[in-house]
Amino acid sequence: NVYTSRLLKKLNTKYTKFIVIKVVGLYSYRLNTLLKIYNVFSSNLLRLASYNPFLLQEVTND
């Protein structure tokens, strides 16, 4: 479990971008997560990050 400073859990960010470091098994991947979080995840817990901004939308890297 990941603990945040938000009072309401439903307002937490659901998804964020991580880079796949290594394919561990057929359906598991090692990600570049924080040190406190176990970094191997099953493929059914992951989604591909889409990059399709709207026309004239300014994109910033946070």
From TrEMBL:
It comes from the Eukaryota. This is Uncharacterized protein. The lineage of its organism: Eukaryota, Fungi, Dikarya, Ascomycota, Pezizomycotina.
